[in-house]
């Protein structure tokens, strides 16, 4: 454990040192190059924390369902998060995240730099703590809280746009509820239209191609609206038309492939679930791409803003992002994912509720759909809250679709007793055909033993189960539909993200003003 932690810390520190060295030599012409080096290292630190905490929401369900191994998920996420950041991360970023403070009330450029630096480091420190605590939180809300806290420390409460903050607070409810409801809806459709049918495999042949084409429609629309918005502006109607064209094409391609694949599988749930594996990997990759394109700004936005301020000596509402700053964000997310990401991936993928491929697919679908709905309604939602809400929604649906595990245990016990009766009846019939006296006495002895066991089995008596029954009981007892203690911990972390990151950033602002002022 000590060796593992030392390795992770070493990798992170080496990355940050390389960031500092590169920044120093690439920007030696800037008068305050030492300050810029520190800022770029803090940006790299923030990117590491985004990779460690936020990316788990995109690949965690795929890992928990065993559609991807942990190593495979890390590789896919690192590639697509970095690609999203570098290809579609954009060349301009808002300097004041979400418009939560009024830049006109900032006294001068130095104060603006201190606000941005304090916000960035405050948000990163909170993310670091949340990751160590095992709580997936919103990186956007972390930086929003940081900007708000540092802004208040600089000029007072009047700098904050409270109506915007009210919308962000509302998203704490909107995001997980919508994510949970839509994920539960998709899982219910799958259960009702496939797994609850008598001819399960035949139902799967008809339904799964439709679900995959629907997924293509949703994800292409999602990518057009969110993932590529920095490259090209596409309105919602156009995005949906593009998504529809891809969806129809996907159905025509996938239908024969599903029919071919179904020839080599049985109608068991585990086999049918395998048909969701490739679509789930595809979904995880696209979610990572869109996440990298959007959330890299949480790490590099303040860095770009400070760089612009140091170069021009003025405060701008939009800052150009140099390629070297974008690379820091992309690589930092990959480093954080590879070193500290597995902890949160396991939390999201397997510790909240038990996931298989169809459940994980439902969660991925809800993540994309809620973002599209939120974009249409112009609601500020969190991708983290949506994904975690989807996981809990799936867990609670499972709780209501199936019997409670206490009733299942009683079912196993009843089955055990029925088996005893069946054996007694079977052996009694066999007595009439037995000719050997020894065999007759052996069977009589078995019947007497089983009858004695039934007689000595009043209510509350401990039952001696067979090995198969014990394994079945263990699975039932281990099956926690929803980890309520984890739910409470995550909700508490969500609620305190903005105020805690704001408090940290406010303290840091006074520290920076004292040192740099």
Main β-sheet, in a few words? 2 strands, antiparallel
User: What's the order of the H and E elements?
Assistant: HHHHEHHHHHHHEHHHHHHH
Number of domains: 2
- Rg calculated over all Cα atoms: 28 Å
Helical coverage, percent range? over 70%
Strand order of the largest sheet: 1-2
How large a portion of the residues is in β-strands, by DSSP E? under 5%
Written overview of the protein:
The chain has 18 helices and two strands. A two-stranded antiparallel sheet has the order 1-2. About 1% of the residues have low confidence. The relative contact order is 0.18. It is elongated, with a radius of gyration of 28 Å. With 517 residues, it is an all-alpha fold. It folds into two domains: 435 residues, no CATH class; 74 residues.
Brief overview:
It is built from 18 helices and 2 strands.
Which short descriptors sum up this protein?
single chain; 517 residues; mainly alpha; 2 domains; two-stranded antiparallel sheet; 1% strand; elongated
What topology emerges from the helices and strands here?
Layout: H1 2-26, H2 33-53, H3 56-64, H4 70-88, E1 92-94, H5 109-133, H6 139-155, H7 162-195, H8 200-227, H9 236-262, H10 269-273, H11 277-312, E2 318-320, H12 323-351, H13 357-377, H14 383-401, H15 405-431, H16 437-455, H17 467-478, H18 484-516
């Amino acid at each position: 454990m000590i060796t593992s932690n030392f390795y992770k810390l070493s990798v992170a520190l080496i990355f940050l040192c390389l960031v500092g060295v590169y920044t120093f030599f690439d920007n030696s012409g800037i008068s305050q190059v030492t300050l810029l080096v520190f800022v770029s290292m803090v940006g790299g630190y923030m990117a590491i924390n985004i990779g460690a905490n936020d990316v788990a929401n995109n690949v965690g369900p795929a890992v928990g369902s065993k559609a991807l191994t942990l190593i495979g998920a890390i590789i896919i996420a690192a590639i697509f998060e970095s690609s999203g950041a570098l290809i579609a991360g954009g060349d301009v970023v808002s300097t004041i995240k979400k418009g939560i403070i009024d830049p006109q009330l900032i006294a001068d450029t130095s104060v603006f730099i201190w606000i941005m630096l304090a916000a960035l480091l405050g948000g990163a420190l909170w993310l670091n703590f949340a990751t160590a605590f095992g709580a997936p939180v919103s990186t956007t809300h972390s930086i929003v809280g940081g900007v708000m806290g540092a802004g208040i420390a600089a000029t007072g409460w009047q700098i904050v746009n409270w109506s915007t903050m009210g919308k962000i607070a509302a998203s704490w409810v909107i995001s997980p509820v919508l994510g949970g409801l839509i994920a539960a809806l998709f899982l219910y459709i799958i259960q009702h239209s496939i797994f609850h049918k008598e001819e399960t495999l035949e139902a799967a042949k008809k339904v799964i191609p439709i679900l995959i084409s629907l997924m293509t429609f949703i994800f292409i629309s999602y990518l057009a609206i969110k993932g590529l918005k920095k490259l090209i502006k596409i309105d919602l109607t156009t995005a949906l038309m593009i998504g529809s064209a891809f969806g129809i094409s996907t159905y025509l391609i996938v239908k024969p492939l599903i029919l071919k694949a179904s020839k080599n599988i049985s109608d068991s749930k585990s086999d049918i679930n395998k048909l969701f594996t490739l679509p789930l990997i595809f979904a995880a990759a696209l979610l990572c791409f869109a996440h990298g394109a959007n959330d890299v700004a949480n790490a590099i936005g303040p860095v770009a803003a400070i760089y612009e301020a140091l170069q021009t000596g003025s405060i701008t509402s939009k800052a150009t992002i140099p390629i070297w700053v974008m690379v820091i964000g992309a690589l930092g997310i990959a480093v954080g994912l590879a070193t500290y990401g597995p902890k949160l991936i396991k939390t999201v993928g397997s510790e909240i509720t038990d996931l298989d491929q169809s459940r994980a697919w439902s969660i991925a679908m809800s993540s994309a759909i809620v973002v599209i709905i939120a974009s249409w309604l112009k609601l500020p939602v969190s991708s983290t809250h949506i994904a975690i809400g989807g996981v809990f929604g799936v867990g609670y649906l499972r709780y209501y679709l199936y019997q409670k595990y206490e009733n299942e245990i009683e079912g196993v016990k009843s089955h055990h007793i029925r088996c005893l009766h069946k054996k007694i009846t079977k052996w009694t019939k066999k007595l009439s055909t037995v000719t050997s006296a020894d065999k007759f006495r052996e069977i009589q002895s078995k019947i007497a033993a089983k009858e004695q066991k039934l007689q000595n089995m009043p209510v509350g008596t401990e039952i001696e189960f067979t090995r198969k029954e014990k394994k079945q009981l263990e699975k039932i007892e281990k099956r926690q539909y929803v980890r309520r203690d984890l739910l409470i911990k995550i909700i508490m972390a969500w609620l305190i993200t903005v105020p805690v990151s704001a408090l940290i950033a406010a303290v840091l602002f006074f520290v920076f003003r004292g040192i740099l002022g």
